[in-house]
Amino acid sequence: MPGEAQIPPRSIAGAAFLADPALQRLFDVVETPGTRLRAVGGAVRNTLIGVAVADVDLATDAAPETVMQRARAAGLAVHPTGLDHGTVTVVVAGCAFEVTTLRADIATDGRRATVAFTDDWAADAGRRDFTMNAIYADRDGTLFDPCGGIADALAGRVRFIGDPAARIAEDYLRILRFFRFHAVYGSGEPDAEGLAASIRARRGLDILSRERIGQEMLKLVTGRRAGAIAAVMQEAGLLGPVIAGVGRPRCSAACWSSHGRRAARSVRRRRLRRFAPSPRRMPRGLPAACGCRGRRRRRSPQRPVLPVGSVPAPCRKSCARRSTGTAARGFSPGSIWRRR
């Protein structure tokens, strides 16, 4: 594989997640003599530092269509959850695994990337955020570490891959991930280059949704070093804007002044309307109840108009009371209404 010869291999043989029969079954299905499937990211990192593994992400040099074809041929359920980005979800024995084809970024806008599929493992590693997240493991536990992530993970160093400014410009959420990973996995002071690049690119946080910011901050505050990292963010001028809703308003001062004037006029109109006399409405339609109600009122669409002379059951007692004097003379409630 490209870029693999010069990397000294290390192993996590015997890792609990690799011994999962469902995962081994997936290795059997996807791997062939010409293709390879590897675990990558959090499962490998957490195994190295002794943290529980929550889920297993997998990378392969096979095309997404090839992965789906092989999985379906083996009788496994397949869901194309992110086909444009090369990700398919394969369900094995009730366990869902995300399998992503190796990628290289073609264009980025600070949040999303346009990718092209590749078979170069080093190129796929180079587009990831931190070195500790770019460690791959074969089914037997042999590690492939093209970015030096093993040493960083064991030392608690959260370090961007390559140029920190370039990695952040690809996805501005990485600013918050940089601090969150320090709170959860880091030790000592944050990487100076990464911290400086995060401060310079802080205006990029404006394009992020509140939901994504909230998710990252919730994960940060549960980290073992949350207090220390929050102090670093405060000193760097990043904590206040994030908590307050991220950055300045996009409108100019003149624009916001115009908004304020329009809002004030709207408030004044509502206050004046409260004291203005309401227009008189003439009642329309006939009563929808029985004929004992002699006044006119608006017809209710939920209560149909009854034929003249018919009396609903709930109104019979009141009709009888009101028509006591007229019933003796041979009048019915319906006839009273007709005479009126």
TrEMBL record:
Keywords: Magnesium, Metal-binding, Nucleotidyltransferase, RNA-binding, Transferase, tRNA processing
E.C. designation(s): 2.7.7.72
GO BP term, pick one: tRNA processing
Matches recorded under Gene3D superfamilies: Beta Polymerase, domain 2, cca-adding enzyme, domain 2
Domain Poly A polymerase head: 38-158
Domain of life: Bacteria
Pfam families, per the entry: PolyA_pol
Cofactors, names only: Mg(2+)
One annotated GO molecular function: metal ion binding
Positions of the UniProt region annotated as Disordered: 291-340
Family: Belongs to the tRNA nucleotidyltransferase/poly(A) polymerase family.
Protein name (record): CCA-adding enzyme
Species per Swiss-Prot/TrEMBL record: Methylobrevis pamukkalensis
